[in-house]
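Sequence dictates fold. Next comes a concrete instance:
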Amino acid sequence: MRPFSTILMPALLLVLLGAALPASTRAAQPASTLSLEQWRAERIAALTAGSGFLTLVGLFWLEPGRNSFGRARTNRLVLDHAAMPRRLGDFVLEDGQVRFVAARGARVLDSLRSVTAALMQPDSTGTPTVLRHGAVEFFVIERAGRLGVRVRDLDHPRRRDFPGIDYFDADDQWRIEARFEPYEPVRQIRILNILGMESDMPSPGAILFEKEGREWRLDALEEAPGAPTLFVMFGDGTSGRESYGAGRFLDVPRPVGGRLVIDFNRAYNPPCAFNEFATCPLPPEQNRLSLRITAGERKFPPAGAEH
């Protein structure tokens, strides 16, 4: 569902440390601040990497049979991009598999190897086939049983001119010890994505925490068995005002002895906050809180920055 952990936090290369403090200042900060600073730096590194969501320029859903791809309007999949030829090739969808066939004379690379045809493994396999033409990369994604082609431009101005992320002030009061209420058996929760597609995700339990004199509840999701963290999607009283309207995401450690720490300072925007070609899941209705969570990432772009 969430390509940001396939998608959403790819290889973390420490670049663009715009929010980092000078070394002399960092040394005087408590360990919790250093940890949050590193998390923010890695978050920015993931967004600005070649595989980050700032590079996306297209998303096309495939129909059975031959789907021509290129810049000309006569193609079924039209990408109006300077690097694209009139026709780059065809995506052929048959029996649930996608094969790309390059047009005659089109230079398409798989890593550094020139290819004329390739079977496209989708991102749901964990190792999608990524093909490249110039600065344009493309690969197959699978969402709710549908197959589509996602396109990146590694030279996209959105990536080159990234203005950074705006945050609420870090506040230890939003780092809260919570209790975990397991679901036995695990519940399947219906999740809707921003395109209206539905799928079920397993929820091993709920996170319960206290704030402003009452108890609040968030259903946690499990993206992969044995993963070190659980995944939480939530909306709150800042959504659509100070923070992204569709809600935010949070990764939390698995509970130990029925307890865990939920740190809202690490709440982050979904890919759809940065790019219209993402397919973000939306928080389930029970995870939309009236509580104003003034922690984590604010709306993008930062106040005063141009789109």
